[in-house]
Each structure stands twice: as structure tokens, then as C-alpha cells.
Queue: 4 jobs
Job 1
Amino acid sequence: MGIEILEKKFQSYSLQHPLHLLQLREFAQQIAELQQKMRRLFAPVAPELCAACTTKCCSGMPIEGWFTAEDYFAYRMLYDMPAALKAEAPIWGSCSFLHPDGCSLPEDMRPLACVKVNCPALNRELEERGGIEEFKRLCAALDDIQTKLWELVTAHEEQ
């Protein structure tokens, strides 16, 4: 789903359900904290491993990332609409948020699919360093929040 469509949905949701925004912000802050913990796990492993990789994860992404409505709504509670899309034509299969210096989205609020899925090499490194169980725990916590977000965001559709 494109960013413009997600933004329209977010604006509509915000107007129709202003009382949900406090809960949505709380979920966004929880997600940001969990993603920061994930970054600390990845910091000693990912830079070297990812730099040497020839099949970068973000090169196999949809053009506008893996944002679901829930991810996007949480993102928008902490940040403005992402405007850092590539100006030039994207490489086929490459996320538009991927720039030469890496992801242009904030490290603490990327789509959940982007932070919960690792390549086998990164998982092996985490395993060898004793961090895989913590990573799995953080993913499970993100899954729980994602479910609550989904329930909050879709509850209005059933009314």
C-alpha cells in the first residue's frame, strides 16, 4: 500500500477516532523502545555483516517498504509523514527508503516486518553471541503490540 494512501487512512482515522490516539501513541512508544533494544543487539553484528552482503534485505522489499496500516499509524504518532523517498527511479525490488547510507526511516520506528525478519547469517551471529533468545523475546513483544494495534485500528471498521 502506498504512503499517500496510508497517510489518507491515518488522517481519516485520526479525525474519526481522536480518543484512540492516546492508546496509539502508547503503542508507538512501546514499539520504539523495543526497536531500540533490537538495535543494541544488532549493533555489534550487523554493520560488518550487512556491509559485506551481496543480497541486501532492503533490496528485496516493495517500493514503499513493508508498512501495514498499523505500522504506519504507529509511525505517524511519533514522526511526520516520511518524505525521504528516492527522487530517482527506484531499482526494481528495492525499498524507496533505502539510500546509500542505509534506511532513511528512524531506527526506532521501522515497519515491523523490517525489524522482525533476519537473514540466516545474522541469526547465526546472534546465536553465537548469545542474543538470539533476546531477539525472539523482542519479536514476540512486537507481535503482541502489533495484534493490539490491529485490533485498535480495525475496530472502527466493524462499528
Job 2
Amino acid sequence: MMSARTARLLLVGSACMLGLWACGVDRGDFIKGADYDPCQSNLPVCQQTAGCALGENKYIEGDFPGYRNFIVTTPADTTIVVKLFFDTREHPGEDTEIIWYEPGCYDSYKYRSQGDDIFAIAGGDRVFSQEQKVRREGDHLVEVYSDAYTHYLARVEIITPMN
């Protein structure tokens, strides 16, 4: 028969493990398989410059409130998924926008949070994700603005068309 102390320790240990499991993705999981890019370049795109070019094997980090931009190079008819991992969550803010541009920046697509709590949308795994299908092949400028107070990591996923 198990002692009361052993039973309590097992219960506490199980609760701790359940708590860890319920938290979902951690920082290490989010950046696994990707290299850090300080995103401090000046890459010409759309009559301005972007800090870096992101693919699935790179990640960046920074702080909101603020602005960040980067380039994603894709074939035609590809979905670009922007993923933000909230390392800290101080305040979700009122306005978060992600803008995906077609090459040349004549056409764009926009996500706006419109007051929605982006931390709540991210949920327990702390990953906020939005996607957009782009039509043309080439370099796509992606801009992210947010008035949230958070330290974040960002990655992209590129979903190419089935051939």
C-alpha cells in the first residue's frame, strides 16, 4: 500500500507534468530546425528595404509595439503562413496588422486584429498564426505592425501548390 506522502508526491508530479503538457509549444520547439537571423540587412524591395529574407529554416525575434518587415520568396500560388511565438505577454494591444505584398507591391492582402486579443487567439501554445495565398512567383514583402507589448519570435511556413 502506498503512503499518504508518496500519494501526494505522485499527485503533485502528475499535476506538474499535466501543466507542462498543457502549455503546448515552448521556445525551443518553435525555433527547432531554424537559424537565428538578426534581420539587420537592407534588402531592396518595393521601393524600400527589408531587414531580411525569411524561409522555413530561419527565425527572427523582436519586441512589439513596433514594426518589422521581411521578404519571403515563393513560387506562384503559394500560401505564406506568418507565425509569431509570444515569449512574453504583457498586453495584447488593440491593433495588429500583417500585410503580404505581391512582387512589385501593386497588390496586397491584409490581416487586421480589429481589437481582438491576439494572446487569447494564440492560446496556451503562445503561437499566433495567419496565412495568405499569394498569386505571383517572386519576392513578397511582408510587414507586421503591432501595438501589443510582447517579446516575440517569428517564422514563416511556405505551403506550395500540389504539382
Job 3
Amino acid sequence: MQSISDIISTTLNEFIADVKYRHIQAGQRATGKSIASLEKTLEQRGVDYVGQVLGAAHIGTFETGRGPARKGTRGSAEQAEFVSGLAEWCKIRGFTSAGLSDEQYVRIANWLRWYLNKFGTRLYRNGGRKDIITPAMQTFADNLEKRLEQYYTEEIKNNFFNSNI
């Protein structure tokens, strides 16, 4: 019989795999860095178990999109990193059909940065979606509940029928 920590660990791994699959199926994957950042942690605190799924700060935008930036919320280092990521995204997605230099990709990325900071992504403007993280969370909760119920049912049966009272 699996231990509780094994059950939680397995279910967290399935959740991560489900989010990755749904993200790819939605056509959102470009570099793969976002979904590669997903990882689980599981620790025991006394008799309790605490499991978490950690990832890049923008994982929530898989469903919500990215809204316009608020004034003064990003420093120059963050903006430079954002532009660098956008330039890489443009190259991977074949954003333009002509062979462009790295400098030209950076110019396009700077324009995209301005546009996204001003208006947000199309997904955000269209109201988002609920088919990547939301159903994966529901499946995770259902699977964890079912597995823990089986574990405790088995545990009660074993303790009741195999006790030396």
C-alpha cells in the first residue's frame, strides 16, 4: 500500500503533467521555459503534509493573459529581460518571414513590449480562458480525494480486522 506522501507526490506529478499537456494543446508553448519551471515540493510538518507546485511568476497568464502594465511597476532590468524574452519568442514563432538580424528582432520586441504594456495580450482582452489550469486543478482535487479515501478505507479495514483486541 502506498504511503500518504507517495499518494500526494504522485498526484502532484500528474497535475504538473496535465498542465503541461493542456498548455501545449492550447498552442501556447514557444520556448518551453514556462512549463519547464513547474516543479513540486512536498514536506511533512508534524503529522501534516504540505505539497506545492511552484513555477514562473507568470504561469497564471496561461489562462488570464497579461493585462496592461501599471505605471512604474517594472524596473529597467525587468523591461530588458522582458524584451529579451519577446525577441526570443519572435524568433521561435517565426514572427516575421524575412531573415532579420538580432537588432531588428530587438526592435520588434521593444514595440511588442510597448504594445503589451499599453493594451495587454489578446487573451487578456478576450476575457481569458479556463481550459488549462482550472480543469487540471479539479482533476487533481478529485484524484487526491479518491486516493486518500481508498488509503484510509484500507487503513481502517486493516486496523479493524487485524487488531488483537
Job 4
Amino acid sequence: MRLGDAVRAAWNDGMRCYYLAIVAGVGLAMSAFFPWVLIGDRTLGGVPGIAGFWILGLGVLAALLATLSLITRKNSRHPLLIIGLAAFGIMFIGYRFLERAATEQAWAVAQATEIVAGRSLAEPQVASIGAGAYTGLVASAVLVLFGLTIVFRRAANPYPEPEDDDV
């Protein structure tokens, strides 16, 4: 099968929207390896922490569920909605907690350094959001919106019609 035929088959597939969920799940898993908070030359967040492992697990689970939905032709939008909500909550709260902790730690270090040096107190470095937080928040929001489509669409039959493979 050529690449063009594969793309055409995927485009004409009745469950083609699950490819978006697979990409969002992979993006969510990848965001666990990027820094979530940047403060000066230091980076915080991601896989060494517990929140990073949760995000990695949720991303892998989302990609796995979406792939299984494509294979079995069964709907898994409700679990993907729950996974997206959990991931969004972890990413948002984790980022806010890390930002505050990093800012307070930078302020304490800057204050201690200036006191020891005998200089006046300087402003500490400000924490900024990293690529991992952006990627994770966008991917989890895509999963939430994808899961909400079954709620707002209210299809009479949320499962696709079975295809006759014997023809």
C-alpha cells in the first residue's frame, strides 16, 4: 500500500477523528519530558517528579485507548474525556505550584546571596512557563474537547455501523 492510499483510507475512515486523539495522547506523553517551569537557567517539572509520571501514564493511556478504538471500532470518548480532565488538572495545578515554589526559592536564594555579599537586595528572577506546560495543557484540552463531542453531538448511535468484510 502506498502512502497516498493509506492517507486516503484514513481520511475516508468513519472514525478518523480518533487520529486526533492519538496525536493528543502522544503530545501529552511527550510533554512529560519537557520542562514545565523555567527560572533563569534552571528547569522544573516533568518526568523526575510524580506529576510528570502521571502525565506520562495518562498520555500513553489516551493514545492506547484511541488506537484500540480505531482497531475495534468501538467508542472510547467518555474515558478519553476523563483522562483529559485529569491531565488538564494535573498540568494546571502542577504548573501553578511549581511556579510559586520556584519563585519563592529564587527570592530566598537571591536574598541570602545579597545579605552575605553585603549588598542591597536585588529583585529575584521571575519564573516563566516552559514548553512542557504549553504542550501538556494544549494536548489535554484537545482530549477534553474530543471527549465532550459525544456529549454535545448526541448521536442516536455513538458507535459506527459495522462494515461487511466479506464483500
